[in-house]
Write a structure and sequence with these properties.
Layout lengths: L2 E5 L4 H12 L3 E6 L12 E3 L18 E4 L14 H22 L4 E5 L26 H20 L2 E6 L2 E3 L5 H11 L13 E5 H13 L7 E3 L5 E2 L1 H12 L10 H10 L3 H8 L7 H6 L8 H15 L8
Parallel strand pairs: 1-2, 1-4, 2-3, 4-5, 5-6, 6-9, 7-8
Antiparallel strand pairs: 8-10
């Protein structure tokens, strides 16, 4: 049994990770910003407040062997900060480095940092896959801050002997998902026609259960120390295929129709949503052979299983909606 500290324990990934660690017999403490945070009563919590260069981690780190650092200022579509990069750096970079130094000083053996595929870039070209050996090419403040946090963690590890593991997931989906994926679920569930028939892009995703399993493997496997890993479900899909799989899981018809991509981009620009359409039309593929080889990691869930779990959760929270024909 290992004693874990999970930061961001009340979040989408954090809640699932804490539950799985407890299920496997580990001891878990969840770090949260306030007592108002939503978290299972089975998980002991440490209220640490805002994460940054001055966060007091003393109580949270007491007796901890492994830290899994999920808490972060995340990518947002509508940015309100006057200086977004400075705000991302305050939390994601300075906060991560401070936690790592406190963890090393407290005798923590390993820290697993959940970064982002945005460190590699926003899209892959035809036939390309992102890998751990790529030169980082972050293109927005969030991605830049994640890359800088990775570097800060590596510095602390080299100076202190703290074992570090960095994980860069692509889009994560599963029960409780929010953001664009949740919006797409809602649109498909309502039977709204979508102009994405016959798209040929390819995207890697990872379901919540697979990411949780990979993070636990990175926390416990001796070979993971000092490594960076990309993770995915192991199956790349087009936007067309993803919507069809979503519809099947929801028990709906996909109702796709064809509109030329150039018209989709023009329409998105007129609506002020070019980034969302770019993600739907573009490709982003990851090569996760390294984690599968180093750790003998096998994703426990297929994409179909992950989408079905997500659809079941969605339908359970929207039971008033009727099905289409």
């Amino acid at each position: 049994m290992t004693t874990f500290l999970v930061t961001g324990a009340s979040g989408f990934v954090g809640q699932a990770l804490c539950a799985e660690l407890l299920f496997r017999g580990h001891s878990v403490c969840g770090a949260v910003r306030s007592r108002m945070s939503s978290i299972s009563s089975a998980v002991p919590v440490a209220v640490v407040g805002e994460i940054g260069a001055d966060t007091d981690w003393t109580v949270a780190l007491d007796g901890v062997e492994v830290v899994i650092h999920l808490a972060a200022r995340v990518h947002v579509m509508r940015e309100n900060a006057m200086d977004p990069l400075a705000e991302f750096r305050r939390i994601n970079v300075a906060g991560t480095e401070h936690l790592a130094r406190c963890a090393a000083a407290s005798g923590v053996k390993r820290m697993v940092y959940v970064s982002s595929i945005k460190v590699n870039g926003e899209q892959t070209s035809s036939g390309q896959q992102f890998s751990e050996t790529d030169m980082p090419a972050a293109q927005d403040p969030y991605g830049v801050s994640k890359w800088e946090a990775e570097q800060a963690l590596r510095r602390v590890a080299s100076e202190t002997g703290l074992e570090d593991v960095i994980v860069r997931p692509p889009l994560v989906y599963g029960p409780g998902v929010k953001g664009n994926f949740a919006q797409m679920l809602n649109v498909v569930a309502k039977g709204i026609p979508l102009p994405f028939a016959s798209l040929q892009n390819r995207r890697s995703l990872i379901c919540l259960g697979n990411l949780v399993d990979a993070l636990i493997a990175c926390s416990t496997h001796p070979a993971a120390a000092g490594q960076t890993y990309l993770v995915s479900d192991g199956e790349d899909v087009s936007t067309t295929a993803l919507i069809e799989k979503m519809a099947h899981a929801l028990g709906r018809n996909s109702r796709l129709f064809y509109l030329p991509p150039v018209l989709l981009r023009i329409l998105a620009a007129l609506l002020g949503r070019p980034e969302q359409i770019a993600r739907l039309l573009g490709s982003l593929r990851v090569n996760d052979e390294k984690i599968r080889g180093d750790l003998a990691w096998v994703s426990p869930f297929t994409m179909e299983q992950g989408l079905q779990a997500t659809a079941d959760w969605y339908l359970g929270h929207t039971s008033g909606q009727g099905k289409d024909g």
